[in-house]
Amino acid sequence: IMDKAFRLAVTGRPGPVLVSIPMDIFSMELDTRFFDARIDNLPLLPKPGLDRGTGEDIAALLAEAKNPVLYPGGGVISSGASAALAALAEHLEIPVLYTLMGKGAIPDDHPLAVGMTGFWGTEFNNRTAMEADVMLAIGTRLSEVDCSSWYRGETFDIPPTKLIHIDINPEEIGRNFKTELGAVCDAKHALETVLEAARRLYPEGIRRPEKVREIAEAKAAYFAGIADAQKSDQFPMRPERILADLREVLPRDGFVVADVGWNKNGVGQQFPIYEPGTFVAPGGLATMCYGPSAALGVKVAFPDKKVVALIGDGGMIANVSPFATAAVDDIAVVWVVMNNCAFGTIAGLENQHYDHQFGTLFERGGEPYSPDFAAIAEAYGIKGYSVKSAADFRPVLEEALALDKPCVIDVRMENAPVVTEGCWNINDIFRKRGEDKPWRVWSWEDIEPWRMDK
Fold first, then answer.
1. Which CATH architecture has domain 227-446?
2. Homologous superfamily of 52-218 in CATH?
3. pLDDT tens across 13-47, in order?
4. Which of these, 268, 313, 317, 316, lies nearest to 292 by C-alpha position?
5. Residue 106: how many other CB atoms lie within 10 Å
6. What φ, ψ does residue 100 adopt, rounded to 5°?
7. What is the pTM of this model?
């Protein structure tokens, strides 16, 4: 069983493996030679590759397409395929969309990087995906939120879009969309094979200057649309300002570890990531309280890099124990608590469908209520900051990063929703019985914002 567990952990899609052991086994004396042998003999199994002919077929489909797109997921990052992805995009001049977990597979300031798709994707991003005639999706499960719950005409239109799907897990191929061409393959090997074929078959490459121009114009228009919020002196702060200030202060290769809520979805939508693997988030099950602890692991793995964890007040109050670990082991994580005194996403869904917000907006005596996270940090023996104005946030963040010590920054934030252009069928689940309001009418703009400046 342990042999199988080790093999599963390092093959296919790498990840943790649970081994459930009965209580009586723990009290038994066991022969340890099998464990000793495994420690010194962990096999590195070859990963499945892509044959030359299939690589040529994919290269030809992409090169001859009118509106091709590349669509990397987290598998591109974990396989170390980012350089091959960028090279293929540049040689055939193909726009690159990505999943939430694929953010960072290509630098966000690359001229061919479009952005994230799905529920939190922008209108241009989702339209680019829908208008594609050929899409190479690689290292992705094509999961629900990235695909607007798989509704046709929201993010993807497959078919008529021809989907080429490459993933190391055979169960993912064709699971959610009709697949024109599927391959079970390591993402890096696949992209390198397709790139080699593209260079051989199209030595001069393909130029699509109008696509490059459209991408630049769309990105400029998007950031112009949120510029006021990014510069706002409002306090409690606009979340856009928090992210903008952080991006200006954090080094290009610094890590952002997100929990769930604005700190994950907003980063995916509007926070540029420049290096693969420097955005760490719970994209699969969206597990609340993941971020506070995950940041410790990132810092231990990359002690010379700056690590900032963006956590909502709900996620932070449920998991403050990492403060103790950081204090004892001197792990220099900076936790930024984006504190809106609420479970904001749940509050929005409740208000939209049931006209109430029970247990999701925290008040005391008619005023927004939250624990003092800076004081909690100090109680654990690490530095705590309480931001009192929008102008204070950036210098506090700069000081915390310069200390190279564990720090907590508590910053009050407006409970403003992330603007969404895609859809999410959780609204079908929550819709009241007999309610004739179709899911597509729902949007975050329907929600009355709950402000903390009353």
1. 3-Layer(aba) Sandwich (3.40)
2. TPP-binding domain (3.40.50.1220)
3. 778 899 988 888 888 887 777 677 666 666 667 78
4. 316
5. 26
6. -55, -45
7. 0.89
